[in-house]
Amino acid sequence: MPLLAAVAFITFLGCAMAGMDRDLSRGVLAALQGAIAVAAMSMPRTRTAIFETLKHYSRPAGAYCALLMLAAVMSGAFFVGAADDPWRAEQALVGLAGAGFFFAVAAGAASAGGRNRMMSVLLIAPVALTLLIILDRFDGQLDFFGLSRVAPDNRLSGPFSTPNEAATVFALFAILAAFAIVDELTRRPPTRGTLPPPALAQRLFVPVTAFVASLNLLALTGSRAGIAAGVAGLSIYFGIAWLRGLKGRSGPRLVPIAAAAVSVIAIFIAFTSGADALKRYTIAGMSAEPYSAMTTAALDAWKQAPLFGHGLGAYDLLPAGDAGASNDIVRWLAEAGIVGAGLAVAALLGLLYQLWRAKDHGRRPTRGFALAAGLLAAVFIQGLAQQVLSSPAAGAVFAALLGLAAAYVDPPAEARRIKPTARTRVLG
């Protein structure tokens, strides 16, 4: 349980520090992620779960390790670097490695300590952030106690650098909360010794609270891409969950009911707390000229080094980086090239494919596949429209939630067999 709480705390801390200097927050997060990986490896049960996770997802893990190797070569770690600023490239490499460690720890801790427990502690993060944002509003300055900048149009960004970054994180938390709601509705909790299982209302309290809080803040950001990403991610998740539920007893009824309840809550929030934000969402200008110019500049920079890019973290040093990047896709191409982008896509799609092939309670696809598909859809849509997914906070949340999704697979057959011990030999 302490390791589960540590994963949730690092996720929360990464979000709370998101509005601070990005170099500082990335370094602190990577150090904490490395420290928790060392702590997890020192625990026999968690260490075994992490090794089983890496064994099950060996191909996606191999693609991710190849990406890390490419980033290391470009940063000059082997004295043949091509990055313009090795220090910035090394920092980006450390951040990427920290996210990989965090994924493995989240998956291992969820497998060893309990997936429902991990989900519950992770859902506390958006609730805690919401409470802090409410307290921050008392002084009339939406600067998160002076740790972040105020958005020019006074949109809510909370502890994050921009409203778009905040929308990304809260969209991911909303998908996790919806997953938790459906999971609680469709499962039968075991008894706790002589005590009966907790009532459904009790089990739904944290997921529903986290869902309402995440949707409120998502609406208040007024981010077009974030709202679209959240809606798309939730739709894909509910669609896949319903298809999986067709093979069960309660899924065909409960999943549509849960989706309808979520839709009602979302519409209510949209026309109450998020009304002003949505008004800006609908009347704001739709000029695409600045984005088109930034996209063209990023593609020109990519054409200079199409295969391996200019190195992770190098975009801000390029001429194309003077005005920023229009979205994360073109920035990733300019920094990592076709090879790096291909390895990143291979790692993510490989994870999704493995979750599709695996069984969860003897059925395919796994619940983790539905969750991961919703998360990836939200990240992809947001990444097509905004440059926010390179944020250390968004990366930490994404890694932790993907790690939780990766834990929703049945253990291998050999793990289910009773291993011979002195006691079993005597009984036999």
List the main descriptive attributes of the protein structure presented here.
globular; single chain; 428 residues; 17 helices; mainly alpha; disordered C terminus; 71% helix
Overview of this protein structure:
There is one protein chain. The chain has 17 helices and no strands. The chain is mainly α and 428 residues long. Helix 9 (224-245) packs antiparallel against helix 10 (251-270).
| Share of helix, binned | over 70%
Major pleated sheet = none
How far apart the termini lie comes to 35 Å
Radius of gyration: 22 Å
Integer average pLDDT: 81
- What is the helix/strand order? HHHHHHHHHHHHHHHHH
Instruction: Compute the number of helices.
Output: 17
* Computed structural class: mainly alpha
Shape: globular
Q: Total strand count, please?
A: 0
How much of the sequence is in beta strands?
under 5%
Low-confidence blocks of residues: 414-428
Task: Write a short abstract of this structure.
This protein has 428 residues and is an all-alpha fold. The protein has 17 helices and no strands.
Question: What topology does this entry show?
Answer:
Elements: H1 2-16, H2 22-41, H3 44-56, H4 58-75, H5 86-113, H6 115-136, H7 163-186, H8 200-221, H9 224-245, H10 251-270, H11 275-283, H12 289-304, H13 328-357, H14 367-385, H15 392-406, H16 413-416, H17 422-427
Helix pairs in contact: 1-2, 1-6, 1-15, 2-5, 3-5, 4-5, 4-13, 5-6, 5-15, 6-7, 6-8, 7-8, 7-9, 7-10, 7-14, 7-15, 8-10, 9-10, 9-14, 12-13, 13-14, 14-15
